[in-house]
Amino acid sequence: MQAGYPRLVGDIGGTNARFAVQRTPGGPLEEVRTLPVAQHASLEAAVRHYLSEIGLSVVQAGMGIANPVLGDQVRMTNAGWAFSIEAMRQSLGWTRFALVNDFTALALSLPHLSVQDVRQLGGGTADPRGPMALIGPGTGLGVSGLLPVGVDRWVPLAGEGGHVTLPAVTPREQAVVRWLDERFGHASAERAVSGQGLENLHEALCALDGVVSTERLSAAEVSRRALAQQDARCDEALELMLVWLGSVAGNLALTLGATGGVYLGGGIVPRLGDRLLRSGLRARFEAKGRFQPMLARIPLFVIDAQVSPALLGAAHALDE
After folding, report:
1. Is the separation of the CB atoms in 15 and 140 below 8 Å?
2. Same domain (yes/no): 98, 169
3. pLDDT band for position 234 (cuts 50, 70, 90)
4. Is 107 contained in some domain?
């Protein structure tokens, strides 16, 4: 057994918690499992369940979590878990417990993704040492970036860019933003560009069109009806989510000077397939006036890996 190994890595979202183990330095991630968050009382309970299931003890752990990590105490925004990082480390007997924001972990994985892990949506060739931007709708809207330092090091950005104000371009978008603002007090990007956001958009369109709905459609159902071309309003809701994703991603690209590419992560976008190509996502990404030529050169990459890249990023968080 090498010092610090085997170690546990995790990708903790609002809906699912994914775990894996790494037995040796630079070794593959093994025993990848997904546990529903709602079925476990706490993160520690989920970890104990996983380790019992695979019959292994670990020395240390690194995880990304869908939440700000601002100190020792963590209370998840989109789930009921709350815990002390140090108390959990002691309870589980680990020598080290590195916890970072889930999109910080995902950002750390970007330089290590293979060509099989991504699909490109337009743009040119990425600068291999240029800043990278990361954004992805899932339960919420994660945003991060990765900045080059020296020859071979990268520094991830930890922030809450998903809560920037949602930009409206068309009169229809302005009406939706007003509806979201009245409902939530602030029309953030996450209120529209996420699973919950897709549900909000469908409800907003129904309200604006005077349609009385007997139920609130889930994000999965809105997507299903849109992709099957069964419901025009579901299709409009999905299109709004995608063009707003393009707008916010373009803003992020300009802010970071993301010549290394803009990566689209999260659990929703990879499932949309060719619908991405038919949407206005790429056009809205580039629609930045005088800076359109700059945006046109920046590639958009959809992260579509078989194993959650955030698990790999959590391992690199332990290495730092």
Report:
1. no
2. no
3. very high
4. no
Q: Are residues 82 and 125 in the same domain?
A: no
Q: Are residues 170 and 78 in the same domain?
A: no
Chain segment 191-219, per-residue pLDDT in tens: 999 999 999 999 999 999 999 877 789 99
Domain span including residue 148: 114-304
Give binding residues as ranges: 10-15
Mean pLDDT over residues 158-176, rounded?
94
* CATH classification of the domain holding 140: 3.40.367.20
- Statement to judge: residues 144 and 249 lie in one domain: yes
In the chain, how many domains are there?
A: 2
Question: Which segments are annotated as binding site for ATP?
Answer: 10-15
